[in-house]
Amino acid sequence: MFKRRYFVALFSIFLSFPSYSQIEINNQKSENHQLVPGTEVFMVPPPNFLAMGFPGFVFPAADASMLVSKIPEANFLEIESELAGIIGDQKLISEVEDVRINGFQGKIFTTEEIKEGDPITYHTLFFGDNDFVYLVMGMCPSDHSGIIESIKESIFSIVYDPNAIESSIIPFSVQVEGTKMKEVGERSGMIFYTVDGKLPTESTDKTALILGSSIYPVDVEDVREYTVNRIKQLPYTATNVQKSQLREVQINGLSGFEFDFFGTKGPGQAEELVYVVMLFKDDKYYLLIGNASQDFEENLKLFKKVSSTFRLME
User: Fold this and answer.
1) Domain 172-312 carries which CATH code?
2) Are 193 and 208 in contact (CB under 8 A)?
3) Contact yes or no for 291/207 (Cβ under 8 A)
4) Domain 4-160, what architecture?
5) Which of 124, 79, 134 lies closest to 102, judged by CA?
6) 198-226 per-position pLDDT tens digit
7) 159 near 103, Cβ under 8 Å?
8) Is pTM beyond 0.90 here?
9) Which is nearest to 274 in space by CA: 305, 225, 234?
10) Angle, CA 41 vertex, CA 22 and CA 87 arms, to 5°
11) Which UniProt keywords are listed (predicted)?
12) How far apart are the C-alpha atoms of 239 and 235, rounded to whole Å?
């Protein structure tokens, strides 16, 4: 059963009563389509958007990005019925469009939120059937209307191919034995950990860890600036991080940075502790993100303990 808290935690989008329309789309793969790493989804990226080694695309100069993620243990009808109950009592959706993409049911939401004082526009598509659901989300500062439109066009270029998913051999690990964390498993090239080993968690303790890496090689000229930009892409409001605030770390032969802060995922949401470690080796990066909504001091110790066990697999 798709849990509302998973939806809210993942996307942090506040909904209002929207206008509706319906779109029918039939796509075929072209030479411009790219397989989104770690997924079964092909897309035509918007102009100037680059593959940066994660399941999506980024336009750094415009602070714009796209993310593709498969929602675990969900089917589209369950999500649709859940959304129908949410739409009536929330505030920020401007439009909802029913879509069919190559025969798959879907809904795309256009929303806006204020982040660090600036309006951000999101296009968020859910599509699937009784066996799978994918989320495709694009975000961009609202004053870039041309980029916003190109993001929507890119979303509508989707081709789903269940035989196309890249094999994902996870080349790294951490040790959680002796801690409260349990491995959930791998999703889109990332390893998830929660207190009960479930995603979404059913525990009252929402402490979570995510471990991932770049999938494709990345060209990083300034590792501090790259780390700051990656932290700012996390779904938290008013994330204030400067290069000078990053703390250098050395973990099992890898060098990088750590940073922790308190943030919320939107108005009315609980404050969370967020801990980030980013490590670099050759043309790849490795990322650990921990978040907790309680017992901040103890959970920070937990996150640091687990991150210190990070190692590459031989």
Assistant:
1) 3.40.1000.10
2) yes
3) yes
4) 3-Layer(aba) Sandwich (3.40)
5) 134
6) 877 889 999 999 998 876 677 888 999 99
7) no
8) no
9) 234
10) 40
11) Signal
12) 9
Half-sphere exposure of 279 (CA within 13 A, CB side): 22
**pLDDT at residue number 15:** 38
Tell me, yes or no, if the two domains 4-160 and 172-312 fold the same way.
Answer: yes
Q: Characterize the bridge pairing of strands 19-25 and 93-101.
A: parallel
Q: What six digits make up the tokens of 129?
A: 């059937």
**Can you give the length of the chain in residues?**
314
pLDDT of residue 309 exceeding 60, the answer is yes
Domain ranges of the chain: 4-160, 172-312
Token pair 């009960």 is found at 196
Residue 2 has pLDDT above 80, yes or no: no
> Using CA atoms, how far apart are residues 54 and 66, in angstroms rounded to an integer?
10
Task: Kindly state the percentage of the chain with pLDDT values over 70.
Answer: 83
Tokens (6 digits) for 184: 């959930």
Mean pLDDT, rounded, for 224-229: 92
Question: Concatenated DSSP letters for the chain?
Answer: ---HHHHHHHH-------EEEEEEE-----TT-EEPTTSSEEE-PPTT-B--SSSEEEEGGGTEEEEEEEPTT--HHHHHHHHHHHHTT---EEEEEEEEETTEEEEEEEEEEEETTEEEEEEEEEEE-SS-EEEEEEEEETT-HHHHHHHHHHHTT-EE-TT-PPP----EE---TTSS-EEEEEETTEEEEESSS-SS--SS---EEEEEE-SS----S-HHHHHHHHHHTSS-TT----GGGPEEEEETTEEEEEEEEEE-SSTTPPPEEEEEEEEEETTEEEEEEEEESS-HHHHHHHHHHHHTT-EE--
Would you say the C-alpha torsion 75, 155, 289, 211 has a positive or negative sign? positive
Tell me the pLDDT tens digit for each residue of 42-93.
999 998 887 765 788 888 778 889 989 887 677 888 777 776 444 334 437 7
